[in-house]
Design goal:
This protein is an all-alpha fold. The protein has 9 helices and no strands. The mean pLDDT is 89.
């Protein structure tokens, strides 16, 4: 929670929002290149339709979309709404994180996690695959910030790993059983790895809520976005579950602890 004066608090929140816009734009570019097999480290940003190299003015988050009226300046093709929507959402998530954790290492840790999860969601929606690189970066993010924050480092790391295992292993076991029953893949390995990675950041109790939220969001997404499928030949009706897990993890950052405490208060 911010404890500065009104002007300083406002300044910090505006900066957080702008940084969120920029990072949302950045991870959008990274996700698109990964999904299309392009080098996401080198090379200038370009139009997804005609390949035109984008100028600096065409890369300003949200503003460029509005100035260009949602169309590419070079070929007049419509620009996907995923770009401004994800940029604005990332901006609000950054503001929410700062409001909850203040100017702290926890804020930075969860901001990085939010960016990773956005990348996971975008790539999974387009390809049905969750790249291991995102999972690895999420694990490294947890380890590094745990070390930076100091205190009971070993205890925090061990508890995080135990929480991750506590959420991933039962889901793995259930998935193996359902695979045998349905005689087809019921959940991708990437989803299970993602559950382990996000599980590092929360308590075991909060992870139970995270799984529940993931299922709820998955049902909603499947109903709302009925045309979205991962293109799996063995299971053509398969729906990407990564975005549901990602959204559940972001929501859990803000509400999981309070809901768990409220629930445990009944006992």
């Amino acid at each position: 929670m911010l404890q500065f004066g009104f002007l300083m608090n406002t300044y910090i929140l505006v900066v957080a929002f702008v940084v969120g816009l920029v990072m949302g734009s950045f991870i959008n570019c990274v996700a698109w290149r990964i999904a299309h097999g392009e080098d996401f480290i080198h090379g200038r940003s370009h139009c997804a339709t005609c390949g035109h190299t984008l100028s600096s003015l065409e890369l300003i988050p949200v503003v460029s979309f509005l100035l260009q009226k949602g169309k590419s300046r070079c070929c007049q093709e419509k620009i996907s709404l995923r770009y401004p929507i994800s940029e604005v959402l990332t901006g609000f998530v950054f503001v929410g994180v700062v409001l909850k954790f203040g100017v702290s290492l926890n804020s930075l840790m969860f901001m990085v996690l939010a960016i990773i999860l956005l990348g996971v969601a975008l790539v999974d929606l387009e390809t049905g695959i969750i790249p291991d690189g995102f999972i690895l970066i999420g694990i490294i993010n947890f380890i590094l910030f745990t070390c930076f924050k100091g205190g009971t480092i070993i205890s925090t790391l061990v508890n995080g790993v135990l929480s991750g295992i506590a959420i991933a292993v039962p889901i793995l076991f259930l998935t193996l059983v359902m695979d045998r029953v349905l005689k087809k893949e019921s959940m991708g390995g990437g989803d299970i790895k993602l559950f382990f990675m996000v599980g590092l950041y929360f308590s075991i109790q909060s992870n139970v809520l995270l799984v529940l939220l993931s299922c709820i969001f998955g049902i909603i997404f499947t109903y709302v976005f009925q045309s979205v499928r991962v293109g799996d030949e063995e299971n053509p009706m398969a729906f990407p579950f990564g975005p549901s897990i990602a959204l559940a993890a972001v929501v859990s950052v803000f509400v999981a602890e309070k809901i768990v405490q409220w629930y445990l208060g009944f006992f």
